[in-house]
Design brief:
Blueprint (H helix, E strand, L loop, with lengths): L7 E5 L3 H13 L3 E5 L2 H11 L3 E5 L7 H9 L8 E6 L4 H9 L4 E4 L4 H21 L3 E4 L2 E4 L4 E4 L2 E3 L3 H12 L7 H9 L8 H14 L4 E4 L3 E4 L3
Parallel strand pairs: 1-2, 1-3, 3-4, 4-5
Antiparallel strand pairs: 6-7, 7-8, 8-9, 10-11
Length: 230
């Protein structure tokens, strides 16, 4: 996928005015768009539509966005899908819950279409850059990271990571033993044009550790994190 009109977007919101607004602006930019009214319908539409990007409200009837996101991430075909939450709720615990469920990004309503389009364009650019630049394998001890296939192996056993967890692990492992603070990790993994709170890094580090083991990523208290080879 090299340009926006090859990207498919699923908009999930129970407010028809919002879905209509987003669909109009996204289609104008060349995206292929479909919509769903709740999390349950989103799961059904995603299975048929196979979106590259999902824009999803948090609070919805039938099934909320957090539950839908978690269920999507359990399916192999959606582990690399870009999921961005749109919500009127700005409490930190809602944001942490969204990232814990596997979200890539989180923005609060009222939605500014131009800002959203800019954010999605940045995601498209990063995806295209990664396609051409990250063709290599990182092997450190019993961990092997294949950046061409987004695969991680521990003792030759494959471990499945959602895209942001993979990118975070890959970034740290590319420069082992170098300590990165949270701001550096946010800027390099999420991008400077995406606003997420610093605790997002902590959530993703915890989830990566759960899958590859506690010893590989070390916390440097008061500073940040590093991929440990000691």
């Amino acid at each position: 996928m090299q340009n926006t009109n090859q990207y498919k977007v699923l908009v999930v919101d129970d407010d028809p005015d919002i879905t209509e607004l987003l669909q109009y602006n996204l289609e104008k930019e060349g995206y292929e768009v479909t919509s769903a009214e709740n999390g349950k319908e989103a799961l059904e539409k995603a299975a048929k539509f196979n979106p590259d990007i999902i824009l999803m409200d948090v609070m919805m009837p039938v099934m909320d966005g957090i539950t839908a996101c978690r269920q999507l991430r359990e399916k192999p075909e959606f582990r690399e899908t870009y999921i961005l939450f749109l919500t009127a709720r700005s409490e930190e615990f809602s944001e942490i819950a969204a990232f814990d469920a596997g979200a890539d990004d989180f923005i609060t309503k009222p939605i500014k279409p131009r800002a959203l389009i800019s954010r999605l364009a940045a995601y498209v650019r990063r995806g295209n850059q990664q396609t051409g630049e990250e063709n290599k394998v990182i092997q450190i001890g019993n961990i092997r990271i294949d950046r061409t296939s987004f695969s991680v192996f521990k003792d030759n056993e494959k471990i499945t990571l959602p895209k942001k967890e993979f990118e975070l692990l890959s970034f740290l492992a590319a420069t082992p033993n170098k300590v990165f603070n949270r701001e550096e990790l946010l800027n390099n993994v999420w991008g400077t044009d995406v606003y997420v709170i610093a605790r997002t890094v902590d959530v993703h580090i915890r989830k990566v550790r759960e899958k590859i083991g506690e010893d590989h990523i070390k916390t440097i208290k008061g500073v940040g994190y590093k991929f440990n080879t000691d």
